[in-house]
Each structure stands twice: as structure tokens, then as C-alpha cells.
Structure prediction request, 79 residues.
Amino acid sequence: MTDCGCDKARAELEEYLRRELSERDFQDVSDHLATCEDCSAEHLLGITLTQKVQKACQEKAPLELRDQVLLKLREAASA
Prediction:
């Protein structure tokens, strides 16, 4: 177990959240987050933001709005 330090943990936080780090780097950052309150709070913020963005991307516009947009696109294309 090693503690990579705040600089490395913060620099690799996005990759950590997406599990894009090597197993060793992932474990180093995990070990650091377990003992550093500031980085752990930043990690929690990253998780929350990621979840909110994922949820927002799943929402669909109301059907009426979709129809209005398509109508305007057709009008613009025929003009």
C-alpha cells in the first residue's frame, strides 16, 4: 500500500472515476483517498457531478417540443 499524495490523486481523479488507470495507479489513488479528507471530498464531488450529468443525458425532451424543433428545421431547410 502506498499513498501517492494529493497532487497525483487530484491529477488522476477523472481517470480514477472512469476506471481508466492501471491497477497499480488505481490502488495508489484509492489508498490516498482513504486517508485524505480533502481529496476524498473532491472525489465525492466528482462522483456526484458524474451521476448528475449521466442522469441529465438520459432525459428526453417532451414530444411537443421535439415536434416544434423538427418543424422549424423543415421550414429552414425548405427556405
Remarks:
- Helices lie at 6-11, 13-17, 23-35, 37-58, 63-78.
- The mean pLDDT is 92.
- Residues 6-78 form a domain with the Arc Repressor Mutant, subunit A fold (CATH 1.10.10).
- The first helix runs from residue 6 to 11.
